[in-house]
Amino acid sequence: MNPDGVFLANGPGDPAATGRYAGPQIEKLVKSGKPLFGICLGHQMLAIALGGRTRKMKQGHHGANHPVKDFTTKKVEITSMNHGFTVDAASLPEGVEETHRSLFDGTNCGLALKDAPVFSVQHHPEASPGPRDSHYLFRRFAEAMAK
Predict the structure, then answer these.
(1) Is 40 assigned a catalytic role?
(2) Active-site residue (options: 40, 61, 77, 123)
């Protein structure tokens, strides 16, 4: 297979447990130079593969209308979320930047590699319970694959 890009999908589970076997594979994908886009569990596993850590949240984030600040656009997005773990932003290594943050509790909601077309978000832009504030992420991924 020679895909134009790889999507790291959402799904249930403990990211640290899943990351033990998926992390090395995701590392290989990052090194391939192909665009990568992760959502929710895909975001958490990407962080682990890049050298970051996750932690269990006391209550998690569930439902719609969660405000998230996007540092790349300087906008606040209204998002849907459904997770009980978060990426520890302080654990992200050099070369990985935090791109999104929850305005409810300040937890990490996005990251990107500074020198590669690799990014992810904690929220669910595919869910669209009303707002479509995050749909630009799919355009960003498609544009990265077109290059």
Answers:
(1) yes
(2) 40
Residue with tokens 């403990």: 14
Catalytic residue from among 61, 94, 126, 135: 126
**Closest by CA position to 46, among listed 2, 97, 84:** 97
Question: Is 126 a residue of the active site?
Answer: yes
The whole-number pLDDT of residue 1 equals 84
Average pLDDT of every residue of the chain: 95
Mean pLDDT of 33-59: 97
Is residue 43 annotated as a catalytic residue, yes or no? no
Burial class, 81, CB count within 10 angstroms (exposed 0-12 / middle 13-18 / buried 19+): buried
* pLDDT of residue 130 exceeding 80: no
